[in-house]
Amino acid sequence: MIRVPGAAIVTLLAVLAGFFGYRGFMGLRPTGPTRLVTEADLTSFVSASQDSSISEFVVVVLGATWCNGANDERLGRAVRKIESFRARSSRQNLTLTGIAVDRDAREGIGWLNRLGHFDELLAGGHWLNTGIVHFVWDDGLTRPALPQLAVIKRDIHLVDGRLRVAQQILVESAVGVVAIGALAERLPSLLAASERDQRGESSIEPVSH
């Protein structure tokens, strides 16, 4: 008979619980109510447009606690400038996203909270952070460089009860606190020009790296 140390059994149970989820592994059902997203929910999400579609701008800030430039006060001023612009313009189609390329998610979240008030935060995972995988490695919209500010435009459509991102392009990006500050200063005119492009007055071409 093979004897398995008690510590090994405890470790195995912990791994299984983490993999399947504690309640699922123990055969317990969730105690709270569950709710599926309905088409009515999604319709209200894009209700501003009669053709069930919206265009959204995502301003992405990339940095890390271990990056000297990301801890420069000028980066914080640039983020606050963007926040101030959005508050004055009451824009509903502008999302401010913060990505911390830290191994420790808590440290990254702390840095992002000190930097500004974001709509969404992604931290941890180092260079395999979900946001980095999406914006840098998969789509190639941004560069693997810190600190960085990227302005991304995406068209979203409601089709058969599902939201679909039809197009996602990089409008402009900047690396380094000086360039980021300049881009933050030009953001209002940049978004206005992009919206004119959408109306067919000209075309936007993805920025090449």
Chart the SSEs and their pairings.
Elements: H1 6-20, H2 22-25, H3 39-45, E1 53-63, H4 73-89, E2 94-100, H5 105-115, E3 120-123, H6 130-138, E4 148-159, E5 162-175, H7 177-198
Helix pairs in contact: 4-7
What do you see in this structure?
Helix 5 (105-115) links the parallel strand 2 (94-100) and strand 3. Helix 4 runs parallel beside helix 7. The chain has 7 helices and 5 strands, in the order αααβαβαβαββα. The chain is globular and about 45 Å long. Residues 9-31 and 202-209 have low confidence and may be disordered. The protein has a 5-stranded mixed sheet, with helices on both faces. The longest helix has 22 residues, at 177-198. The protein has helices at residues 6-20, 22-25, 39-45, 73-89, 105-115, 130-138, 177-198, and strands at residues 53-63, 94-100, 120-123, 148-159, 162-175. By secondary structure, the chain is α/β, with parallel strands linked by helices.
Helix content: 40-55%
Shape: globular
Rg: 21 Å
Which structural class do you get from the secondary structure elements?
A: alpha/beta
Within the largest sheet, what's the order of strands?
3-2-1-4-5
Strand residue content: 15-25%
Helix count, DSSP H or I runs of 4 or more residues: 7
* N- to C-terminal distance: 62 Å
Biggest β-sheet, characterized? 5 strands, mixed
Q: What pattern of helices and strands is seen along the backbone?
A: HHHEHEHEHEEH
DSSP E strands, number: 5
Return the average pLDDT rounded to an integer: 80
Weakly predicted, low-confidence segments: 9-31, 202-209
